[in-house]
Amino acid sequence: xxxxxxxxxxxxxxxxxxQLKNILHVPTAHKDLLSVNRLAxxxxxxxxxxxxxxxxxxxATRKTLLTGPCRRGLYPVRPANKExxxxxxxxxxxxxxxxxxxxxxxxxxxxxxxxxxxxxxSNKTSICDACQKGKSHQLPYPRSSSVSSSVLDLIFSDxxxxxxxxxxxxxxxxxxxxxxxxxTWIYLLRRKSEVFQCFREFQALVExxxxxxxxxxxxxxxxxxxxxxxxxxxxxxxxHVSCPHAHQQNGSAERKxxxxxxxxxxxxxxxxxxxxxxxxxxxxxxxxxxxxPTKVLQNDTPHFRLFxxxxxxxxxxxxxxxxxxxxxxxxxxxxxxxxxxxVFLGYSNKHKGYKxxxxxxxxxxxxxxxxxxxxxxxFASLHPNAxxxxxAEIALLPDMLRNPSAGDSILPDQNTGSSLPTNPSQDxxxxxxxxxxxSESTEQESAAGDRYFMCRNLADSTDPRADSPTxxxxxxGRTGGSASGRASxxxxxxxxxxxSAGSSAAPxxxxxxxxxxxxxxPDRDAGSAGDLxxxxxxxxxxxx
Length: 544
Fold this sequence. Notes:
The protein is α+β, with helices and mostly antiparallel strands. It folds into five domains: 5-69, no CATH class; 90-123, no CATH class; 154-307, Ribonuclease H-like superfamily/Ribonuclease H (Nucleotidyltransferase, domain 5); 322-381, no CATH class; 399-538, no CATH class. It contains 14 helices and 23 strands.
């Protein structure tokens, strides 16, 4: 027989209670049996059996504790007072607390496997407050079964960013996905505030092209779309918004972001191109995704579902490969090369041609007359950060040096407010040449000036300020001086970093240093050209 539980009980008598230890619960037994040996040993008593009755006496005092009759050859034991005996069971919720708030299925498995008695609660949908506070999480999302019947019935939109700024100074892009055809449009952005204008352009494009109105748009509740909500209301467009921190409700746009980014990064990796070209790679990725079959459309392409015609794949080329566009129309001289080695940057939405980047000149050509070599990738032989240091140095220069086309416009001096010419490189070179006593040093400095500032020779200059020496100026301030304007210590400006004569090495950015043990400086008026000249020398860069 199977024993389910083991417990303890008490047999009450007029003199004292008798302990019943290790009671075995056997549900299949029809009679309750008492072990004479265990009862006598556990309570220090002995039994006297007579033909018509029995007695239970205490061993020490031989006092009778319990008596009973004999019936049908058996000696039934009955308590002196009638009482109802029942098993005590704990509710399942208490076991849930004892076991550390596991799932209800785990609690049920433990109780049944180890045959622990418990009370099954009728209210199985009760909520544990502690579990909600400690283990709250998102509920599962149902699989969407909604399908748009026609183009522009539902548009998904979202903004992606922000990666490092691209070569086009773009920091974001906004995507628009048609739910019916899964066709995708993206617009590159520099700021999120441009989303409104991009949607206006997208709306005008698709509504004119397909002669239909946009009915519904699904977005998140980002700041760029909060500004668009009132516009949607005026235009009669239903604006569906996902709950906060529930991007899954705008899952079509989120999954499209992942697809675009993965394809774009793959294109960049295969072409060994820096990540700063992510904008061109993403545009090419969208162009290709719209022309690839997808299981969502039963292996149709978004292009075919939207336009009703199959795309042309013969036009495609490997992104980032070497190409040679016909540059003869751009040549200004007859004796010039007809083409140069460029990098294929993708396809133009406005032209039936290819975008070709000339890395050496930093120019992008759009041409239909292009020869490709899809086995060569020019960026694979270049350093990943080629050109980054040069752009960083140029960004530190004042606008007048970065924009030489300004000519000789007048710029107010930062110290005195006087108007000085913005192209004082000639005066600066003369001042540098007249401040030294060593002729050899003067020649080297003059060569540096000619190299970095395209200065004229002294013989060609008639500027009356050419004989005025330059006092040492660092930044926009002047070194210590007296009330009369005379420098307190002899000093001069020298240019370091200029290449020696005949050197073919690329010149480094010149540095202005202060040298002692030189001739004293004569008096000069405040606001002279020397101050501005010295300030320009500090940020000079090679001009060739």
